Amino acid sequence: MTPVIEDQEHPGLSVERQRLAVLHAYGVLDAPADAELDDVVHTAAMVAGVPHATLNLIDEHRQCQLTTVGFEGTDSARADSMCALHFTGGEVVHLPDAALDERYRTNPWVDGRLGRVRLYASAPLISPQGHALGSLCVFDTEPGELTPAQLSALERLARVVVALFERRRQARLAEEYAQQARRNAEQAREHAARAERLSARDAELRLVLAATSDAFLAVDEDQRITSWNAAAQRLFGWTAEEAVGRSLVDTIVPPAMAAAHTGGFERFLRTGTRELSSTLEVPAVRRDGAALSIELTLTPVRTGEQRRVYAAIRDVTDRRRMERELHSLAGIVAGARDAIVAVDLTGRITSWNAAAEQLYGYPAEDAVGADLHLVASADDVQRLGGWLVRAAAGEDVTSTTAADQVGRHRDGSAVDVSITVSPVLDAAGAVVGASIAARDITERLRAEAALREAERRFSLAFTHAPTGVLLTALSGEQAGRFLDVNPTACTMLGHLREELLGKTFADVTHPEDLPSSQAQVRRLLSGEASTVHLEKRYVRADGAVIWVALDVAVIHGEDGEARYAVTHVEDVTRQRADRERLAESEQRFRLAFDTAPVAMVIVGLGEDDAARVLQVNSTSCAFTGLSAAQLLTRDVHDLIHPTTRPTPCWPSRRCCWVNAPTTSWNCASATPTARCGGVCSRPPP
């Protein structure tokens, strides 16, 4: 047995994993066998005097037959392999008849599933580290026996196979080393050439840095400036003699950014990485304190043990300001609710915002480059052309006033717009085009038409209203005076319209009702109430007094101030007289009811109060011995003794009780039986 020695290339791995690593390192699995290996396998078959031989390699899950003699080799499962049973033992296996061996007789290569091997001999392939890679195997389908010399030769041939594997591996490693050496030599030549080029470029770079318009500087690990070109001097105001040796923080970093800058620089030195892109924009400060926006391109460089950071700096202060202005302007134009269209001096559209797309129906890609005839009439285009000619000639045409015009939508429909035109100037102040702001006034025109219609309807309603309508001013010089009255109000007050206009509500109000009317007006003006309802007396032109019912509402201005009062007036003189007569009648009935010498009871006839006592007089209380509170809401049947209750002439609930001296009934109270008057009458059908 060949012992497994310590595998220096794969320490810490299990023996099986080391064996597999060595097998794969040879690179022979699944690779075609060369002629030398074929010769060894043929020699093994010839030495053994058998028709079959194979070179088997065993990996984790399979047996790979690298080259064979006497049959066509193929891969098979490791579990089916005869060689895999004992190849790791390191000894030659010899079976005169495998079918008689308990270890092999059920193997598929023996029992007929894959073959019928009888004579079998295999020598393990042992690597220099002692790992078994597979076996060199010879076999026959007939029983037989090999001599010790034949077995020894088979073992030596197995060592030849491993030697061929090892030679192939060494040759491959040698080629890899040679290729690496060639690459190293090429790199050395490139480094030498690069050093020569760098030396030549260094002088060139110094000249370029001195003449470049971008500021250039370098700092060491302590943030001390080590290089400072002329552009840096012009940008920051420090000469090279003043800047070199100074701290970068004290020279160009704004005080508010000093801590953040120092922290980032120290982190870069500690880790060799930074969280910033190679080009970044940061604030800076000039020697005189002026704020700058600069764009940096950073390059860290290590020279031996020293590290430096080189920075190319470009002043972008003016550019950023212009970009902000342009961005702001573009945002205003893009987000404007008005359509904004720019045209050049020929009338060609050069700019078209989203509102223009919505107003006219053309996307920007269709509109830009087109003539203004796309959306405007020929007359409008001609007027704009004349305006552009005058503006380009230097005439004072700063802008045209807004004018209502009719444009044209993509679908051919008319678009009502209000147009304002302004000149567009270049950097030198010359007119290069015009900016046209178009506002859709369709809704405005519709609202104006609706307002006119509403005013017409209001005028009709105001004039023909069946009630009086008074419009009173609540602020200004006319405060408290009638601004308008309708014909009904004039008829009601007996005045002509011209007579009422300018009068106050106090002029037509009965003197006794004036204080209460003024109090209600104060409630409206203070906001305590938005509307009031009251009845009061007006004095007509002929001196007659009428009672009126008023509903007053306040109209406020946009500033929330009460501006007008609208008063609806209804003449209620007759209704008030009717109410007074009814009240007198009810008072007389109440007096007669309460003072009657006989008991009187009012009984409900409705669905909810049928036969319920609703009202009694004092005589009823004395008669029954019950208080009014005890009698009210009781069922009238409770007041009649059960034995003397007459058969009701009312079917269910619709009945009434009135005094009648001809009928007697027993009271259900605690008083003795008494005779009283009562009658039941059925209501007419």
How is this structure best described in words?
The structure is a single chain. This protein is α+β, with helices and mostly antiparallel strands and 685 residues long. The protein is 36% helix and 24% strand. The chain has 19 helices and 25 strands. The strands form 6 sheets. Strands 3-2-1-6-5-4 form a 6-stranded antiparallel β-sheet. A 5-stranded antiparallel β-sheet has the order 8-7-11-10-9. A hairpin with a 5-residue loop joins strand 14 and strand 15. The longest helix has 64 residues, at 148-211. It is elongated.
Gross morphology: elongated
Measure the end-to-end span: 134 Å
Mean pLDDT: 81
Strand fraction: 15-25%
Biggest sheet layout: 6 strands, antiparallel
Question: Which oligomeric form is depicted?
Answer: single chain
Contiguous uncertain segments of 5+ residues: 649-685
Based on DSSP secondary structure assignment, what is the total number of beta strands? Answer: 25
Content-based structural category: alpha+beta
